[in-house]
Amino acid sequence: MPITNIEHREIARKHRLYFMICRKCGVRNSFQAKKCRKCRSKNLRPKKRDITR
Ligand SMILES: [Zn+2]
After folding, report:
1. I need a labelling partner for 42 at 20 to 30 A (CA). Which of 12, 32, 33, 36 fits?
2. CATH number of the domain encompassing residue 13
3. 5 CA → ligand 1 middle, Å
4. What is the pLDDT of residue 50?
């Protein structure tokens, strides 16, 4: 289902890029996460966001 509301689309676009990835198991975590939700490792990296659209 395509998102027709422009505001919602902007939010969705940001949320696609703002999350943390666990270096250990590769699972996605929230951007505010301090620990991985799966393996509880603190070895998280932010998703790369060099694409500015
Ligand atoms: Zn993990």
Report:
1. 12
2. 4.10.1060
3. 34
4. 67
Distance 9 CA to ligand 1 centre (A): 29
Q: Return the pLDDT at 2.
A: 76
Domain count, the chain: 1
Q: How far is the CA of 47 from the centre of ligand 1 (A)?
A: 14
Q: Let me know if residue 20 belongs to a domain.
A: yes
SS3 percent helix, strand, coil of the chain, rounded to 5, is 25, 15, 60
- Averaged pLDDT, groups of 10, the chain, 53 residues long: 81 81 95 94 86 54
Residue 1 inside a domain? The answer is: no
The residue range of the domain holding 20 is: 6-46
CA distance 22 to 9: 26
User: What is the pTM assigned to this prediction?
Assistant: 0.63
